Amino acid sequence: MRRRAFIGLVAGAIGWPLIARTQQSSATPRVVQLGPVEIPAQIAGTKRLLAELGYVEGRIRLEFRHAAGDADALPALAQEIVRDGRVDVIIAISTPAALAAYKATRTIPIVTLAAVDPVASGLADSLARPGRNVTGIAVFSEETTVKRVELMREILPQAVRLGTVTTKVSSGAQSLTPVLEAGRKLGFEVEAINIDDPASIGTILSPDNLARFDGLVFVPDVVLSAHLGEVVRLVNLSKKPAIFASPDWVANGAFMSFGPDFADAGRRLIAQVDRVLRGAKPGDLPFERPTKFDLRINLRIAKALGLDLPATVVARADEVIE
C-alpha cells in the first residue's frame, strides 16, 4: 500500500515536512494542493507523509482543491486560492494545474509534478535553473512513452491499429507526439482516443468503441487514475492489451505498466517543498527527473487476453503477477 500511495499521472500521494520558511517562522505555514480531480488515496497519503515528517494538525494549514475532472475549471480555482489569503506553497498536480497556478501568481512558490516538459509548457526557463516561481519533479519522458509503444510491438508483432487514451489533462501535443511518431516508426496506425468528460468514460472505452484497435497505450493522466477501477474493467472487457504508466494499474487488474517510479518521484517532490518552506527560491531549485523506472506484468490478464508473451519481455519485468 505504501508503494501505491503516490500515483501520477498519472495518480499518487504527496507530502512535505514541517519547517516554516525562515521569513515566516512564527506563522503556521499554509500549503494548498491543486489538481484536476480528487483522489482519496492521494489525500490520505499526503496526510500520512506529512505526519511522518512532523507536519501534524495544528502545525500546518493543509488544503486540497480539485476541479472535479474539469481541467477548464483549474484557472478559477487557482485564482481563488491566491485571493483567499497568505499561501506558502501551492502543490500543483499535473501540468494544467501548474499552468493555472502560474497564471494566477508569479510570487507564490509552486511545486509541481509535471507530466509535460515544464520548459516547453512555459513554466521554466530551463530544467537546471527554472528562474521563475515554479519547480518540482518533471516525470515527462519521451523515452518512457516510446518504450510503451515498443513493448506493444514486441507483444503484438502483427498489430496495426493502436489507440492512445487521453483526457484534457494529457491531450497536449507534447504528450501525444512521441506516441504518434514512435507508432509510425514501428508500423502502427495510431489514433488518439480523447475523453473530454469523465462521465463519457463508459461510452468511449466500451468494447464496441475499442473493437477497431489491436492495442492501447495510456499516457500518465490523473483524471483517468481517479477512475482507475472503471477504466481497467472496461479495457479488460474489450479484450485489448493495454499498457499504462504506473504500477498501480497492474495492481488493480490491468495487463501491463511501464513508467517512472511514482513513489520515488513523490518523495523527491516532498524534498522540494521542504526546501521552499525553509526559504529556498523555486527558481533556484532544478526540476528533477525520474531516476527509477518500473515494468509490471499481470500474467493472469495476459492469459485471459490470449497472449503468449515473449520470454524476453517477461524477463525484464520488475514484478510479474502470476
Structure description:
- The protein is α/β, with parallel strands linked by helices and 322 residues long.
- It folds into two domains: 162 residues, Response regulator (Rossmann fold), CATH 3.40.50.2300; 147 residues, Rossmann fold, CATH 3.40.50.2300.
- Helices cover 36% and strands 19% of the residues.
- It is built from 13 helices and twelve strands.
- The strands form two sheets. The protein has a seven-stranded mixed sheet, sandwiched between helices. Strands 2-1-3-4-5 form a five-stranded parallel sheet, sandwiched between helices.
- β3, α3 and β4 form a beta-alpha-beta unit.
- α2 packs across α3.
- The chain starts with 29 loop residues before the first strand and ends with a strand.
- 49% of the residues are buried.
- The N terminus is likely disordered.
Number of helices: 13
Query: Roughly how much helix do the residues carry, as a percent range?
Result: 25-40%
Class per helix and strand makeup:
alpha/beta
What is the correct CATH architecture of the largest domain? 3-Layer(aba) Sandwich
- Nearest-angstrom radius of gyration? 20 Å
Range of strand content: 15-25%
List the helices and strands in order.
EHEHEHEEHEHEHHEHHEHEHEHHE
- Which topology of the largest domain does CATH recognise? Rossmann fold
Looking at CATH, the homologous superfamily of the largest domain is Response regulator
For the biggest sheet, the summary is: 7 strands, mixed
**What is the residue-averaged pLDDT?**
87
Uncertain residue segments: 1-25
Shape: elongated
Q: Let me know the number of strands.
A: 12
* Strand arrangement, major sheet: 7-6-8-9-10-11-12
